[in-house]
Design a protein that fits this description.
heterodimer, A: 3 domains, 5-stranded mixed beta sheet, 12 helices, 57 strands, 53% strand, B: 14-stranded mixed beta sheet
Amino acid sequence: MKKAFVVAMLFVGMQYIVAQEIPKISVSFSNVAVSEALDEIESKTDYRFYYVKSWLDDIRVTGNFQDMQVSLILDDLFKDTILNFYIADDNKIYLLQNNQIYDALPDDFFGKEEQVADDEPSYDDLQDYGPLFVNSEEDGANRGIQVVKIGKENRNNRRRTFTLTGKVTNSRNGKPIPDLAIIVEGKDIGTSTNANGNYSLQLPIGENIIQTRGLGIQESKTKVILYNDGIYNFQLNESFEVLDEVVVQGNLDRNVETALTGVTLIEVEKIKNIPLVLGERDILKAAITLPGITTAGEGAAGYNVRGGRTDQNLILLDNGVIYNPAHFFGIFSAINPFSTGAAEIYKGNIPAEFGGRLSSVFDITTKDGNTQKFSGEASIGPVTSNIVLETPVVKDKSALLVGGRATYSDWILRTLDDEQLNNSTASFFDIVAKYNHTIDDKNEIKATGYFSQDKFSITSDSIFDYSNRLVSLKWDHKFSEKTTGSLILSNSEYKFGIEFDGESNDDFDLGYKNNETEFKIKMKYLHSPKHKFDFGISSKLYQVNPGDIVPLGADSDVSALTIPEERGLESAAFISDSYEVNDKLLIDLGLRYSFYAALGASQQRIYQDNAPKNSGTLVETQDFDSNEVIETYGGPELRLSARYFLAPDFSVKASLNNAYQYIHTLSNNTTVSPTDTWKLSDINIKPQEAYQASLGLYKNFEGNKYELSLEGYYKKQKNLLDYKVGAQLLLNEAIETEVLQGDGKAYGVEFLLKKNEGKLNGWLGYTYSRSFVKLDSPFNEERVNGGAFFPSNYDKPHDISVVANYKFTRRFSASANFVYQTGRPVTFPIGSFSFNNSEFVFYSDRNKFRIPDYYRLDLSFNMEGNHKIKKFAHSFWSFSIYNVLGRNNPYSVFFVTQDGDIKAYQSSIFSIPVPTITYNFKF
Amino acid sequence: MTKERLKYALILPMALLCLEACIEPFEATFPDFESAIVIEATLTDELERQTVFITRTFEFEEDGPLPESNASVQVVAGSETHTFVATAPGIYVSEQAFSAQPNVTYQLRIGTQDGRTYISREMTLPASTQMDDVTVERMTNDDGVEGVAILVDSFDSTGSSVNYRYEYEETYKIIAPFWRPNDLEKVPPAEQTELCEVRVIPDTRSEETCYATDISNAIIQTSTTNLSEDRVDNFMVRFIPRDNYIISHRYSILIKQFVQSNAAYTFYETLNQFSGNESLFSETQPGFLEGNVFSEQSRDEKVLGYFEVASVSKRRIFFNYDDLFPGEDLPPYTDPCIINAPPLSKPGQPPRCVLSSQVELGLVGYVDANGSPGLGEGPYLIVPNVCGDCSEIGNPEPPEFWIE
């Protein structure tokens, strides 16, 4: 924009010079290349032509000119082309494609602009007559889409609309695509192709974003800058051909089209309006408004997907694993929303390339940096601030994105009056950097680095901290039109530490760490229209340091203790075929073989058979050398899904899958705690296993305006980890004596209705689901609830979520978010007893009762900054109220013995409405 | 120790997020009350008549446990059997004094009057360790409260004691701040010269100096598992804030140190954990806490409590308030002791006696005559009875062990 304006200014003063007398020449051409004609003119005059050679290819001219001004000759020569020209004062002639150079501003240029600034922007107003300005700043959603310029700009243009015609063909076979919807984004214009794939549209002059949508065809977006009537032909891909790109682009037909069940895509742009807590837009928080994904309670870290444990989710950021994606115990997620492009959540059939976790994959991708220009986005909220900057490194080829987020809660704590909190600290930050480099059309490299840290100190004598770190590298290579491949390397580390410095002789510094390194190759081979193969191998090395403690200070009597490192190698080979049996039936058959080896050096304790594992039944301790295989586990994993079209916009899908998991969290809490550690499978701890079958119906209405899905699943799990009552898990060498392994079963029905567009949009989700665990054993100490199935800690049968946005105007919108959930199961005492001169409560069956039902309404009001054309930054204000109804939702209940008496308490996190105001801006 | 510290460390700064009380008490009821037997016994290596308590669980609204009466209780010690007899409902004491011996297994056997029998695991006496020292120190605790800490040092050079549990009995001298040699008496109707008359008489009922004893009611434990030697160093068994009146004059504490087995230590620790403060964000998974006594009839019957065999070491210390806070103000008395001068009667039909009713019920103590009674005041200055008579909260006789 700015550039166009400067160019225009430059020429304001030149009109007078240009109007001087101009030489006349005589030339004659007969079907010669334009370049030759121009050479001829150059030889006869002082003019020099400047142009891009490729513009002139294939253009031949004919004409006989006697004693004419060059400008008139050129007018005639170029009349049937899209070329324009501009004669500068120094006898240079610039050729232009499509557009014109104006040497004077339109009469009402400035007047109009002021008026526009106060109002909605409108190309129509501005471009009524005269020059067409194209906004070169792209907004996020449309960045990087293809831009085409159509028609030749005419200096004397008086028309406001032009006709665009063309044909849409299938890029693979060249066949026309009929009945394809062609829609102009943000304008009420649309049409569809006829039986021959032809279309015709009346479009306003200037920039139009043209979207195409059709069943089985990948959605496309093209920016058409229209200068005049013209022709544009679309060549489109079939959507299944580029399955993983579909993921990123959010094909509107995915709901009915893909073969996978239980897939959810969250695009950051779309969650912008969801009401926030404490001003954080949060991709993972948005996820829990969708069916099948829940947390134990608000502020609880960890996600339960379809009745699975919180350790069964593979959370990937650019292919690297994040072990604890939460800040502040789950109030905030540790994923920077501004740097995130989209999150793909697989909760049903997980593609064969992923493995190692039973319940879900959260595949989160960081945006590619802007290779065109420096840009950024920032927000200021009450607790955190966030900034993301993008800059090209080599223009059009590579870019760097850097994002950072930090809290100032420390500062808030210090200003509080409470003496105890005054001494507390609670801080966190996360940073992310991504570099993307397109080497050529065959090779592309992407590298990501991420670090997040939380630190807090509540009592004056302890400091607690945890951090995630990951690095990942991905190299995409195109071997041929049909074969592409990616090489992925990633390393991630999670650790926590506690420093305690008190009055006695027990000051310590405690640490836990796990680290994993993965190498993965995945290939895509488009064998034929009917078969598309994905295959590859992966291998992952785990190194877990389960804990070490060292004395802190000279007076400490704490003896240093290190629980020896655990190592394991998890490898897999996978292949899947997306097989289009016929127009209606698509089968995605995936197979994965996973293999795990627990590696030494290690000491493994062997216990008596048919006896509970405890120090009394220990038989021997076996020693294993470094890299010696201790125990192996593994097996085939099936990832089968199929889609059948009952009608073009109505499909039925089914899937069957199973998985193994070799790493488990150790936690004796009902919800996730940052002192939970991860443990690898070994001789005593078997891998967890899950089997899931799902079936769903999917229907889109009114050209994908509405999406409806109904999906049911049944899941069986084996060897889920649980713990004896009062288990001591940290710094315990013989952890297997505290661990129980049992069965799980879960089933549910998920209903989701989405409205994708219009003034009112959003979704309504309802889930009925159950989740049970069974811990049985011949030995009382290894049995819970008499060995019967009991509801898991996260069994919440009814779950309703409504997210609605209403756009009043382009600038103002309001959103609401309503959640209702059955209260989660709790273990409630069933009596008191007297012991040791005190009263205590006693608990019996686990999870027999429930806390009261949970419900919450959040509202937010959003205001976009005005769309002034010359404005430096685009701003966005959000005012939201979390828990408008002030519902005091209990998070947990507990019983405390104080001075010998029992007192019952309930806790809640946000018991009153929490208002928040956040300012975001983009530039 | 590590775990307790951790728990403490995880209590979060919720003032930031919780704009209003996040943790609030509520009226609980047990939706599914279950009556179960509760066994509590700690056999020690001290020669004494050993005690076993047998009670039953009770509902939240009830005041205390129901004793289990008419049970037969035996402890089988190797080839010997000790029989216990009930001395009070639910309290069973061995017929003969005996002490737990090393290398002998002890098993508790109980038969209840409804015909059920219970049996414990076989327990043995852990190592025995004497406390090296009990000290008292003026200090400020982790919560920033000033007060007096009772600290224990203990060391086992063999390294075999490791798990320690403490109980204490504290005894303190109480001096009633408003004790006077005179008392008030309601004048009998026959001798009354005016309605509701009260007169001053020599005090024969109030006590100026008393002694009270409290027993610990918390689970106090420490472990040296993670330490390089089996040394308990300055472990705080008791902390008394300086505004607690019990340290006003002279104070004595008897510390009992029990050496526990690993299993017993874990039982007490878990019990304590279930009843301690919770971190808002992570709640320990509660469940039935299995002890070491089981029903012989049903695998599924819940039996609560623990039969422990422990070595014990006892130590008593005394200190005066002046030793730690020389010349400083005493802590406030247990009652604010507001001086009052109620009228003899309040007008009405018939008039209502005020002071004489309070005197008759023993609610007040005499301080002095009210020299210049104000409007609506009576002739005598009085305080709540406890301010002039400590026998309300203590015993006037010093205990046998008391040394001035």
